[in-house]
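Q: Hi! First time doing this. I have a protein sequence and I read that you can turn it into a structure. Is that right? Here it is:
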Amino acid sequence: MLANEIRGEAHGIAPVPLSVLDLVTVGAGRTATDALRTSVAMSRLAEARGYHRYWVAEHHSMPGVASSSPAVILAHLAAHTERIRLGSGGVMLPNHAPLVIAEQFGTLEAMAPGRIDLGLGRAPGTDGATAAALRRTDHLNEGADDFPQQLAELTRFLDDDFPDGHPYRRIHAVPGPVQATSPGGVQSPHRPPIWLLGSSGFSARLAGMLGLPFAFAHHFSAQNTVPALDLYRESFRPSAVLDAPYALIGVAALATDEEREARRQVRAAALNMVRLRTGRPGLVPAPEEAEAYEFSPMEEEFVASWTANVVHGTPDEVHSGLDDLHKRTGADELMITSNAHSGDARLRSYELIADAYGLPGAS
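A: Yes, that's right. Below is the predicted 3D structure, encoded as structure tokens:
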């Protein structure tokens, strides 16, 4: 059973394990190199402060998000950390051949044994035209509709257990279990646990039926959080992976030393979202740019709605907001994404949240 590699341990006074979701955001005036250096610093901080896992999300064709290649970034982070779990939050499976993902994450597992999570989503992580370019097809609905079949195929590759007579019976994902069957081969005791990600009920129900852990994107689908988690728990069937449900939620949260600074940073992130939603994706603007920007009434309405789902303010305010969210949802783990223009602001946020909960490693 993989439960020991799935369930985390809460530290300090946190009600549940705390984790990190990194979009590798690129601020105006910064480069992707700057953003990736921040990711290394954040992963090391997260490890030192007792965050349980560190995930990277797959996005494409977004100038302000440099996480188009999660497996490459995770390999880089694995080289700079020693203990923290690393994973995808997630790989958008319809964009890829299952065998390729099995090979990539088998390689990551070989690099960082017992530390790799494979989170999978069924959305494209981008716009339709980019998804078509990634998949080399215009039939995008087929990818989402075929997700259960793609998931089953990927699982077979990871376990190397296609049945006799299957056309893929003699195809093996390497690194993987087949190496143990070769002369002198030794089987690794680890296999990356699969998580299903979602922002609606489809993956919630599928994760429950398959007995898999589930991650819900509360940070951009807050209205669906409680219904999706209820559906996951109601649908759950014990499996070789888990004997009881385990669900984390992604939470947008930003802590700053002063409340006003939190509002400035979050409003700048909101401007970035306004541009993304209106087909003008760009780099994350600086707070000064957001302060000078004239929002239309419709944009202001969107900003107010979006900001309401971001837990932000002083460390005590964020602590209280995260506790309230945990009580409302009953999530087994909170995965925090702190998005801001500067890497320093993001790093400081995770430090302040760790301090507020009394996580280990405070300086």
